[in-house]
Amino acid sequence: MHPAEANSGISFYRTNLDDGRDCEIPADFRYVDATDLCTSIGTTDGSVATIEHLMATFRALDVDNCMVEIDGAEVPVMDGSADAFIDAIDQVGIETLSAPRRYIKINKPIRVEVGKSVCEFTPYDGQRIEVEIDFANPLVGKQAYAFDVCGETFRKEIGRARTFGFYADVKTLWARGFALGASLDNAIVIGEDKVMNPEGLRYEDEFVRHKALDAIGDLALAGAPILGCYRSHRGGHKLNHMALEALLADRDAWSYVEMPVRRETGHADLQAGVAAAAFGPDVS
């Protein structure tokens, strides 16, 4: 992760592409090219997948400008949470810039429904996320979590929540040659009647907290912090993206406002050789 100038935003710089070229990909909702198991952004030159945990960390820690250099097609999954990214940024610190910080203020409700899944933006004096999940598996079941986005809450309550998947889906993917990096070290794996990770859960409601983590990361592709409340019921990466597209397409639904303080990261060398995990349809 490298420092970037004010108002330059977040971008991913892909190196070592197959044809020997490099390419830059803006972290912007208009560059989203896949939302099946994770969020991926790309151009005709290249793409980067599994960006949501790092993007959530940038948003929660108020990092607006950063260039992320990456030599592979996926951001390392680490332990399945955002914890390693939080630590990396905390180690190098954040620089406050003189440029005013621009926010997207929600002016009226915007709602997206797909089957039983619903996402909605509403006006709110702050940055709030409210998430509900409803899984048939009783180990997950119905859970809800709501919070105002800030660095300390993210560090303690959200950032350590890991991605999760079901062992039956993992076995199917393994048989097809996919998700070979998935393990108990980088995800919560749910068996028929128990969580298979020996250490158990980090939070009693870790599943919904991770969904909240994903929502923060997906919405960070708006290009500016969102002043408003985002509610998600049975949502996921695809619906988060659809809601963001619907919001930004309606110019009456939002407006830019500016406030003092804009930050960027210092320089950090974040390296990892962990393969990104991927699961089946119930992936967080």
UniProtKB/TrEMBL annotation:
EC number: 3.5.1.108
Catalytic reaction annotation: a UDP-3-O-[(3R)-3-hydroxyacyl]-N-acetyl-alpha-D-glucosamine + H2O = a UDP-3-O-[(3R)-3-hydroxyacyl]-alpha-D-glucosamine + acetate
InterPro entries linked to this entry: Ribosomal_Su5_D2-typ_SF, UDP-acyl_GlcNac_deAcase, UDP-acyl_GlcNac_deAcase_C, UDP-acyl_N-AcGlcN_deAcase_N
Residues annotated as the enzyme's active site: H237 (proton donor)
Top enzyme class: hydrolase
Pathways involved: Glycolipid biosynthesis; lipid IV(A) biosynthesis; lipid IV(A) from (3R)-3-hydroxytetradecanoyl-[acyl-carrier-protein] and UDP-N-acetyl-alpha-D-glucosamine: step 2/6
UniProt KW keywords: Hydrolase, Lipid A biosynthesis, Lipid biosynthesis, Lipid metabolism, Metal-binding, Zinc
Residues annotated for Zn(2+) binding in this entry: H53, H210, D214
The keyword Transferase appears for this protein: no
Example GO BP: lipid A biosynthetic process
A GO term from the CC aspect: membrane
UniProt GO molecular function: metal ion binding; UDP-3-O-acyl-N-acetylglucosamine deacetylase activity
Family: Belongs to the LpxC family.
UniProt name for this protein: UDP-3-O-acyl-N-acetylglucosamine deacetylase
